[in-house]
Amino acid sequence: MANDPISLPIIRKLIGFDTTSRESNLALIEYVRGYLAEFGVESLLVHDEDKRKANLYATIGPADRAGICLSGHTDVVPVDGQEWDTAPFEAVVKDGKVFGRGSSDMKSFIAIALAFVPRFLERGLETPVHLAFSYDEEVGHLGAKRLIEVVKDMPVKPAMCIVGEPTSLGVIIGHKGKKKVRTHVRGHEAHSSLTHEGVNAIEYAARLIAFIQQTARKWQKDGPFDEECDVPFTTMQVGLIRGGTAPNIVPKSCVFDMEIRHLPNVDPEALFDAIRHHAKDVIEPEMKAVAPDAGFDFEEFDSNLALNTDPDEAVVAFVKRLAGQNKHGKVGFGTEAGLFQQRAGIPTVVCGPGDIAQAHKPNEFITLDQVRKGEAFMARLADYATSERLAGGA
Ligand SMILES: [Zn+2]
């Protein structure tokens, strides 16, 4: 229709690719690469190990200047077991909304950025715009972790980054980080009539788990606190446990997984040190007195860095101007923004169209109003990038 948002055809196209995290995203990436190539823009692909997935990085405008990076993930969460009223991988426009998996989280942001590429080029950019589209965000930010290793060593890296996760175009300067640890408890097997000759891995796991619970309650009660976070303290819990063989065998092994969701300005290593210290120095000597090879091992997996951008960073005021906002805030969900900020040293905020409340659910949608606001955001970015050079971006 005449008054449809200009990005709608690309939104339709992107939703049409089933990029559930377990699937390859290469068809979508090839589409984006082909689209950019039509405008003479080259793409750098950074693949995963078995070449089933790829990140795409492209620069529009002068490649020898630091610019503004627009980052987004191409994967979506599964629709398995969800009741959808429409086909999830087909964009359906109805009642002022675009329905489809990834409509809000976060293919519309990517589509809007792509729709503006010809406009950026026509007008000639003084400040370049970099596109960074990743895979496997929903399963541990795996793609962004690989991509950031390439970006951080680029001769000219972005001066700032906007991660377009759905915030209804609110400007987000912080979110919690996540640290997951798998604990392996090595016990010593014995007949259950000889418990004193064995080391019961399950019981020692339980001792450490009780300490984890006490520690988490202490954080909740005594802080530290960050009132800008919706849950203003660091949380921690054990979410999975496995161990033992039979009631008449003293178990020789137990494994459990814990997760810490820590405040943006808290060091997760220091938090975990308290757990490690209790295991190694308080509990383990008792185990080793019976069997010297008994004890605890820790293995970190699938963690995500917090975002903790200083409100005085230039990126914060800049993105407020683009989004027409005068406030900033923090959110409860994690993004790749912490990787850009902490791993690559690029000042970063999260700001994108759509509402996180609609993400990951059946009948996910984005309103046409949010799509239009996202386009207005991108139009202001074009105005800025065609008229000004970023300070320090020479
Ligand atoms: Zn997302």
Structural key phrases:
394 residues; alpha+beta; Aminopeptidase; Alpha-Beta Plaits; 2 domains; 4-stranded antiparallel sheet; 24% strand; binds zinc ion
Could you please describe the fold and organization of this structure?
The chain has 394 residues and is of the alpha+beta class. It is 33% helix and 24% strand. It has a six-stranded mixed β-sheet, with helices on both faces. A four-stranded antiparallel β-sheet has the order 11-13-9-14, with helices on one face. A three-stranded antiparallel β-sheet has the order 4-5-18. Strand 4 and strand 5 form a beta hairpin. It is elongated. The structure holds zinc ion. The site of zinc ion (ZN) has 5 residues, from helix 3. The site of zinc ion has 5 residues, from helix 3.
Q: How many strand units?
A: 18
Total helical segments: 10
Low-confidence stretches: none
**Mean pLDDT, all residues:** 95
Largest sheet, spatial ordering of strands:
1-2-6-3-7-17
Q: What's the level 1 CATH class of the largest domain?
A: Alpha Beta
Strand content: 15-25%
Estimate percent helicity. Answer: 25-40%
Note the main sheet.
6 strands, mixed
Shape: elongated
CATH architecture of the largest domain: 3-Layer(aba) Sandwich
Return Rg in Å.
24 Å
Q: Which sequence of SSEs, written as H and E, runs from N to C?
A: HHEEEEEHHEHEEEEHEEEHEEHEHEEH
CATH fold-level assignment of the largest domain: Aminopeptidase
Present as ligands are: zinc ion
Termini gap: 42 Å
Structural class: alpha+beta
User: Considering the protein shown, what is the CATH homologous superfamily of the largest domain?
Assistant: Zn peptidases
Number of domains: 2
